Amino acid sequence: MWTCPKCQRIFQIKHKELVKELFDKIAKKINQQVGKCKIISLPCCIHLFGKNDFLVNSYGYSIDIKTAAGIDHELLTWIFESYHLKDAQIKKGYIVSK
What we know:
The protein is an alpha+beta fold. Helices cover 38% and strands 12% of the residues. It has 3 helices and 4 strands; from the N terminus they run ββαββαα. The strands form 2 sheets. A two-stranded antiparallel ribbon has the order 1-2. A two-stranded antiparallel ribbon has the order 3-4. A hairpin with a 4-residue loop joins β3 and β4. The longest helix has 18 residues.
């Protein structure tokens, strides 16, 4: 188990250093290559929140990233598309913006 020094949440994770390394890498890549995101820690999970909650959907998909090599061009392309999906839908008239 590991306790976050910032939020005091307790995580039951093995290989804490690897998990932290992978999380930091993907957050950095998203901020550099996709768009700015904010890290929001909830009791059930950690969200990366951009203009919209771009990594959450009602389908419950998940991707297991086990090594740094898993944070590749294909994954970042999926994240980019998700991050900008609502903008594209508004532009095409699928969603009426405020």
